Amino acid sequence: MPEPYEPNQLPLNCIDWAEHVSLIGKANASLARYDEILQASVNPEILISPLINREAVLSSRIEGTRASLEEVLVFEADPDGDVNPKKRDEIAEIVNYRKALRLAEKNLERKPLHVNMIKELHAVLLNNARGRYNEPGQLRTIQNYIARPGQPIEQAIFVPPYPFLVPDALSNWEQYLHSEEKDPLVQIAVLKAQFELIHPFRDGNGRIGRMLVPLIMYTKGLLSRPTFYISSYLEQNRDEYYQALLSISTEGDWNHWISFFLRAINEQAMENSQKAREILRLYEEMKTRVPEITRPQYAVSAIDTIFSRQIFKASDFVRISGIPKTSARRLLKGMSEEHIIEVIRKGRGRRATIYACIPLLQITG
């Protein structure tokens, strides 16, 4: 079989800092502008919730999951609906990804990022999903590999380090995480790649690796909240993403990967900023329209509920918004008539009517 990869000791001594100066400046500036939007928002949650949903879908899609954002949200609104088992597993992966991101943000309020926290996130990620039998939350004890479907290890594209090397490699990774580097974005590039090359788990390494990007950004003080999502760029440039990672193991070419990662941060920060501005514009528009339909004291709760769920049934709307049932149902009817929300599935028998905020889905879909 191909020789297992032997991780570099961190910090690296092969970074060509001069080569990356321009991209470092652009990426840091774009990221700062994105964080300014988050900080300026009176209620950052109206931005974060739709963007987290989008990230969960796109990060899982890189790994072959095909469930759409709408399918995930419809399932959450009606878990007892008709969904084939394969699609149900895919949806579970996406829901778990979002749960892990939320847990990470909560944990980072109390303690710094560390390997045991990452294990906890991994356990959430694989819980009751396709990877449930791949030792959730545990470092791998077997030699795994990456290959095309059905191919043996002899034809592997990449063979990670021997299992007995994983704990020491992660210890070195964690020491570097908590050290200072000339530029934190370059440091994050190295940390993300090194984590995925160590491949510490039997499954879910790529998703955890992408999840680590905003968590480390927050740890390094680059973000006011750990809410930067990179999977859109990586999904659109999947071949280059994998090739840049592979070039580290095959050629020792860290600078190619660092350049790719900095471009990804720059372009993704600009896209995230644009998405955030579009979400805020829609929110402000709804703040003008919804009070015309209901009592002023209900308007903000109604809008915030829509932005937190995007697709929902009436009982969820009542529960989350806290609006009295009679007023809430009247409000749903009024918002539907004004096309603020749309009925995407009419209720029948015991099946509830499902509503969606189509403009918000168009922004984040």
From TrEMBL:
InterPro entries: Fic/DOC_N, Fido, Fido-like_dom_sf, Fido_containing, SoFic-like. The keyword Cell division applies. Residues 113-263 form the Fido domain. The keyword Cytoplasm does not apply. One of its GO terms (biological process) is cell division. It holds the Pfam family Fic. Keywords: Cell cycle, Cell division. PANTHER family: FIDO DOMAIN-CONTAINING PROTEIN, FIDO DOMAIN-CONTAINING PROTEIN DDB_G0283145. This is Fic family protein. It comes from Methanoculleus bourgensis.
